[in-house]
Design a protein that fits this description.
- By secondary structure, the chain is mostly helical.
- Helix content is 73%, strand content 2%.
- The radius of gyration is 21 Å and the shape is globular.
- The mean pLDDT is 90.
Length: 424
């Protein structure tokens, strides 16, 4: 019995570690390139499903399946809407496949998180974080062996002191691995749920150390926005919490639309110039994208995949070498979905999804949840994070784990608390 448990956990960690570690490299299947990190979770997902068929926990599967469905709806709706836009715009086949696969990759992240939470319950968030740490060590240990521990910490301190303006090759390698934004999600979990999960106290310093190593200004903005939203929801009377939470998500919709308008009208550029903010090429990218959209109610959009495909293949010169994408999830979503599609996506992604999640769990969960939503909201202004597969994996596993913990702590939920790993 213990051997079966051990094998199951080992196979999980192999999949999870490779998901984080294989941030580069791909394989071509039927003419399409698939990053290894997208394929790594599939064996574990298949194994978890097979175990469900043998020793099913129906109630837990229903709970996890409901959470997965809520996460998937906004993604599916954008694909359906894009089908119309692709046809109207006579979109390139590769544009359509890129937009479709971006969504498929995020669905894999959702399924991986769901399989982990179904299998391990509330412990899934810790298993996933340990897998991330192992992958992190696999990246930094060779760097330390090559350059020495002293040089490593010198570059680490330099990165923090200069606010990432000066980075050595070691820190640049860590930044390319792209761990920072995902670790930001774990920071919120460890800080905001420590009373219920005492082990968080020991994991928080590790998360902070790793987060700063992948120093990202956009992630710091996201953390600031997340904590402000959390504090506002925390301090209001209990009778007003649900209303305040929904008002906060509604504000996100309006502010996201306002930000796109500010980019379109050059307000962001003027603000950056007046305040002396180094946008690291973002203003140049925004300016070069202006001919491809109109901030107008009649602007329909170009369909998912347009921005990434056009920039990545050099069909649009954004003036920044190796840009790859647009460095603003809000602007990209607006260009691809149009005015009405963008507003619809914002409502589905921020308001509807949030409302459904707190209805499934409870208001205390909602107060925690608003911090995650606001963190993402803050990052989406100037970052390509919406389609970041491993970040979305972290978001899903954190939210699913805590949602299941809140649900199974109820008296009526105690009978389904036994995880798959305990049933093996």
């Amino acid at each position: 019995m213990n051997i079966r448990k051990g094998i199951f956990i080992i196979l999980y960690f192999i999949s999870a570690v490779l998901t984080y570690y294989l941030y580069e490299g791909s394989i071509t299947i039927a003419g399409f390139g698939f990053m290894y990190s997208y394929l790594a979770p599939l064996p574990f997902v298949a194994l978890a499903f097979a175990c469900f068929l043998v020793t099913p926990n129906i109630d837990r599967m229903i709970n996890v399946g409901r959470l997965m469905g809520i996460f998937a709806v906004p993604l599916i709706l954008t694909v359906i809407y894009s089908l119309v836009l692709w046809i109207v715009n006579f979109a390139e086949f590769r544009t359509m496949t890129r937009g479709l696969f971006f969504v498929v990759y995020q669905m894999i992240a959702i399924v991986m998180a769901g399989a982990a939470v179904y299998s391990f319950g509330r412990r899934a968030v810790y298993f996933q974080f340990v897998a991330l740490i192992i992958a992190f060590l696999m990246v930094i240990v060779p760097l330390i062996q090559q350059g020495g521990i002293t040089e490593f910490f010198n570059q680490y301190i330099q990165l923090i002191v200069t606010g990432s303006k000066e980075t050595g090759y070691m820190m640049q390698t860590v930044e390319r691995a792209g761990f920072a934004h995902g670790i930001g999600i774990y920071l919120f979990y460890f800080i905001l749920t420590w009373k219920e999960n005492k082990v968080n106290i020991f994991l928080l310093p590790v998360a902070v150390f790793l987060f700063l190593m992948g120093f990202k200004r956009s992630a710091l903005v996201g953390i600031s926005v997340g904590f402000v939203a959390y504090v506002v929801a925390l301090i209001v009377p209990k009778s007003l919490k649900k209303t305040v939470l929904l008002v906060e998500t509604t504000c996100m919709i309006f502010l996201g639309l306002l930000y796109v308008g500010a980019i379109s009208n050059g307000v962001i550029e003027k603000f950056a110039e007046a305040s002396g903010i180094d946008t690291m090429g973002r203003v140049e990218i925004y300016n070069n994208m202006r001919p491809y959209y109109d901030f107008d109610i009649t602007y329909m959009g170009r369909g998912l995949g347009f921005v990434s495909y056009m920039i990545g293949n050099g069909f649009i010169d954004v003036g920044v070498p190796n840009a790859g994408d647009i460095h603003s999830d809000f602007l990209r979503q607006f260009i691809e979905l149009g005015m009405l599609g963008f507003i619809g996506w914002m409502i589905a992604f921020f308001y509807w999804r949030f409302k459904k999640l707190i209805e499934v769990v409870d208001i205390k969960f909602g107060v925690f949840l608003i911090s995650i939503f606001a963190y993402c909201f803050g990052c989406y202004f100037t970052e390509n994070m919406y389609y970041n597969y491993r970040v979305n994996l972290a978001i899903a596993v954190v939210i699913f784990s805590y949602a299941l913990q809140r649900t199974e702590e109820r008296p009526q939920g105690l009978d389904i608390k036994k995880s798959l790993i305990e049933r093996l």
